[in-house]
Amino acid sequence: MRHTGKQGLWFRPNLFYFLPFVVWGGLTVFLLFFVFRHVDLKPRVGENFFFSSDDPQLQTDRLISKMFSQEQQIILSAKGDIRSPDYLRKVRELTSELASIPGIDTVQSLTQGPRSTDDALESPLWKRVLFSEDQKASFIYVFLKEKASVKEVVLKIERIKQHFESPDFPLMISGAPYIVELIQRNFLHGLKVFSIVAFCVFGLSGLLISRSVAMVLGTLIACTNASTLNLILTHVFRIPIGPLTANLSTIVFVLTLTHMVFMTFNWQHIIEKKETSVEKASWRADNVCAFSRRMENAAMLVATPRLFTKLIQRPGDVPLGKTVWNDCFVILPFETPGALYRNLFTGETVKTIDLKGLTILYFSAVFSNFPVALMGRD
C-alpha cells in the first residue's frame, strides 16, 4: 500500500480534522434548541391510563358527562377541628385565595356553600360531599374553567397549600387533573434524568474503552442527533408522547450507541491491524512490499524487495544496505520512536526513529545484511 499523506492527521490535526465535529456539533445544538423550544416533551396521560376503554363504570361516567356538563375539579382535604373558629377562619382564607387564581371558575367549601358547620352536618347532601366519614376533615372543591391551563393552576394551588399548611392544619390535594399532572411531571423528570445518566455513563465507558475523545464525541453526537430527530418526527406527525413511550428517545439513543460502538470498534480494530504504508520518499519505494500487524502489545513487520532488476546494477549484487535503499522507509502509525524490532532471521535489532512526527524504519537498516525481514517488537 502507498502512503496517502493521511498519517499526518494523527499527529498534526488541522482545520479539516475538526470540521466534521464543528458541522455535526452545530447540527446537534440546532436540533436540541428546536426540541426544547417547539416539542412538548411531557407525556400525555389520559383516562385510559387508569381504566380500560370498555370498563362499565368509565362508560357510565362518559354518558353522564355527555348529558350534564361537568367541569374538571381538584379537591383539597383540610384536617382539623371542623367546629373551631380558627379552623373555619383558615378554610375561609384558603377558599378566598383559591378563588383568586386565574383559571378557577368556582370554589366550594365549608365556608362557601352551607350556612354553617352544623347546617352542613345536618344536610345529607353537604354531609356526604364536604366531610370525611370520621368528620375530622373537610373538603374544598376547586372547579377549573374549560380552557384553563391545568399546569399553571396546579402550580399555584401547590404554592397556596405550602403557605397555609401547618401541623394543626394539614392539607392534601387530590382529583384527576392533579394526579394526571403529577404523573406527567414524574414521567418528564424520569426522561430527563435517565437521558442525562445514559449520556454520561455511556460517554465515560466509551472513553475508558476507546481512549479516544474524538471517537466518543462523534459517537455521542450521532446518538444525540438520532434521539432528537425521533422527537422531532413524533412532533411533526402529531404523535403524542405516552406513558409507555416516554423513554423512547432514550431507547433510540442507546440503540444507536450500540451500532456506533460496533462500527467504531471494527474501525479501531482495523487500524490496529492495518497494513503499514511505504513512503514514496525515493524511487526505491516501488521495489519493496511491506506490511505490519499489531495485536494488543505484540507487533510484527514483514518486508521483502521486489523487481530486483531495478535494484541491482551488476550481476551478483544483492539488494542490501544504504547504497541500494537510500532514504526509503516504512511508516509504523501505531508505534512510538525508540522501539526495538528484532529480525528473526538474522537476530539484528533496529530502532524506530521520528521523522517529522512519523514513526519510521529505514529499509537500509532493515535490509542491511539479509534481503528478507521478519521483525518482531522486543
Would you kindly provide a written description of the structure presented here, covering whatever features stand out?
- This protein is an alpha+beta fold and 378 residues long.
- It is built from eleven helices and 13 strands.
- Helix 7 packs antiparallel against helix 8 (213-236) and helix 7 (176-210) runs parallel beside helix 9.
Which terms would index this structure?
single chain; 378 residues; alpha+beta; Alpha-Beta Plaits; Immunoglobulin-like; 3 domains; four-stranded antiparallel beta sheet; 46% helix; rod-shaped; disordered N terminus
SSE sequence, one letter per element = HHEHEHHEHEHHHEEEHEEEEEHE
Question: Could you estimate the helical fraction of the residues in percent?
Answer: 40-55%
The total domain count is 3
Rounded to the nearest angstrom, the radius of gyration is 38 Å
Strand order within the widest beta sheet: 6-7-13-9-10
Q: Write down how many β-strands occur, each being a DSSP E stretch of 2 or more residues.
A: 13
* Secondary-structure-derived class: alpha+beta
Shape: rod-shaped
Blueprint (SSEs and pairs):
Layout: H1 15-38, H2 56-67, E1 73-79, H3 85-99, E2 104-108, H4 117-122, H5 124-130, E3 137-144, H6 150-164, E4 171-174, H7 176-210, H8 213-236, H9 248-273, E5 278-279, E6 288-295, E7 298-305, H10 322-325, E8 329-331, E9 340-343, E10 349-351, E11 353-355, E12 358-362, H11 363-366, E13 373-377
Antiparallel strand pairs: 1-3, 1-4, 2-3, 5-8, 6-7, 7-13, 8-12, 9-10, 9-13, 11-12
Helix pairs in contact: 1-8, 3-6, 7-8, 7-9, 8-9
